[in-house]
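Pasting as-is:
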Amino acid sequence: MDQGMAALIAGLAGTAGALGGALVGGVAAVRGARIGAEKAAEAARQQVQDQALADHNHWLRQQRLEAYTTFLAAYDAHVPIADRTSRKIQDLSPGEDLPDEDLAEMIATANAIRRERQRVKLVGPDAIHSKAMNLEETVWNYRYALVTLAEALQGAMPTEDLAETEREERRALAMAHDSFVRAVGALIEDRRT
């Protein structure tokens, strides 16, 4: 083999090597760029999902606060009516008419509590809804105790046990309210909700 032929073969081999290296490098660069683009797209998708979750959690927190606030406002509207009705009932004389308007107003405010409790049920969580249900049931139980006491007073029947039941239901009402407020406070403090 002469030197020209050897140089030609060496040149061709070098060119083939350079082309092969460039081809392998190009394939690797394209693959690297594709992997980088996939990683960037995945990171962007994850960021969008995280932001959507954060936005949803913020929205839910706001809806819960509003539902709890309106539920407590309905309860707060009920309390003075229940107190006024209780005083009127305790002052009843035998044969005197029942304070029907006040008792009807108690039903109206108790129904408002029921409506707002339904909203609490929608936004949850179940533990808070359970406390709201207990408070609503206690409102109705207290009204029943008042009506029973009023009817006994009106009919000049013995009322000692009924008066004690009314006081117990009043205490239960205060405890149910306190339990609901404490549960809401604990939920608000928990940043994961």
